[in-house]
What does this fold into?
Amino acid sequence: MLVNTARTIALEAAMATREFAVKGRKEPFIAVNEVSLRLYEGESLALVGESGSGKTTLARMMLGLLEPTRGDLQVFGREISTYSRLHLASLVQPVFQDPYASLNPRKRLVDIISMPLRAARKVSRDEVEARVEDILRKVELPASFARRFPHELSGGQRQRVAIARALINEPRILVCDEPTSALDVSVQAQILELLKQLRVELGLSYLVVTHNIGVVSELCDRVAVMYHGKLVEDGPVGNVLRAPVHDYTRRLLSAVLPVDPDQARALLLAAFIPPENRPS
Amino acid sequence: MDALLDIGGLEVDFSLKEGLLHAVKGVSFTVGRSETLCLVGESGSGKSLTALSVLDLLPAGATRRMERAIFAGQDISRYGERQMQDLRGRAIGMIFQDPTMAFNPTMTIGRQLEEVYLRHVSRDRRKARARAIGLLDRVGVTRPETRMDEYPHQLSGGLRQRAMIAMALMCEPQLLIADEPTTALDVTMQAQVLSLLKSVQESFGIAILFITHDLGVVAAIADRIAVMKSGLIVETGDVRQVLANPREAYTKALIAAVPKAPGLAPLHLPETAHAG
It folds into this structure.
């Protein structure tokens, strides 16, 4: 693939490190270890790895929710810490895993979705209603949903609401942390389809944190693999999935169970750990 | 085949403020000896309630009715709580999604494994300890003697899962009921735990009733599959046949909805591959 040097860099981590103090220990835990990574404008980048690999910590730093211990984090060429919270929020928005936990159960959807809008500036009630109606259409929910409460919605509908809220201020980047893993498979496919459409329609850039290889291949162009806080592999999705270079990426891919009894059984045999190599 | 478990006409109702919710609407299935039956469905399909009904472990507010419940030739449909307790953990072992549910946080792993044996099999503490250590070793827990004295929180998620499997095996069960046992695990760990289940199933000749929503897991371990939707089994059959040629539109949709990874070349795990 030809690298266009004129492409705008939406998000960039340069030697970003994040440590956490551990009670009773002198040495801190290094969750993210000197990671350098770029998300170009218009791109959809997957960040994969097991739980504890540091992918969510890195994503939180890129959202400005967590400061790095060392290293640089930039949004559109500017150091994250120099942005005001509102300005940063107008550019980068999160979509979380669990739409049951991320929506306030006591608010109507119109208030949930318009919250970022109202926080950014003074808006008339008419404008709120119009903008919410418009964004509900974009996430393919009926306008009448504005009056509803979260408990009246299914999991997939809630995730659409979470996406609507993330998009109401017209951000340029979405950071999605396992956007479909709390949902049923049939609903997962619909949400992935919606995210794909919205990306094209609105010219968004995505950073997608996931451990689901299916999500990577459906939604992303490029994939970065994290293991024990380090970035171990980074490349176009097709290349990495077909010919992974790092040992860990190979293990991760070879453990994904396909919906084919013969292949899936062969993988189980390969995953069997003989007694001499058992975990300690 | 002579079925180990034969459930007929199972219904489960929930009494809610708004009225009665008919959650399982007449479900019948069998599990043969040494066979793995996967109950597959999305959340709310009734698959977990169906499995919990077998052991009469339904949550508060739920009631079950069944026309038939035969386990190992015994009619268990009218078993009282005493008899059920005898069955659970002895002839029928259980593993859950979250191993913290299965363990008491204030007791060592060893105590809890031994207790199952002492309660159901024999009062011989030495035998109980030897069996616990042997099984921990069998399920791939290193230094089992040391682990015996540790508390559940001291083990990693993968090891806790293995210890729970060991606990379920303490009394040589004929049937394991596994409710989404790998859903909370990373993929590499999931493959290892499934391969472990398969291997203990083969060595001990255990039947497994496996509840999952993951068709990749189904493909890997099921002999037969029963697809559930809205409290009913909509399709059932041999796993290869159902996955290759689903008859029901709902089964087709479930299979089509699984995101596809592009053609991965079969890869060999490196010799040192392991996770702790």
Notes: Chain B touches chain A through 57 residues (CB under 8 Å). Confidence is low (pLDDT under 50) at residues 263-276 of chain B.
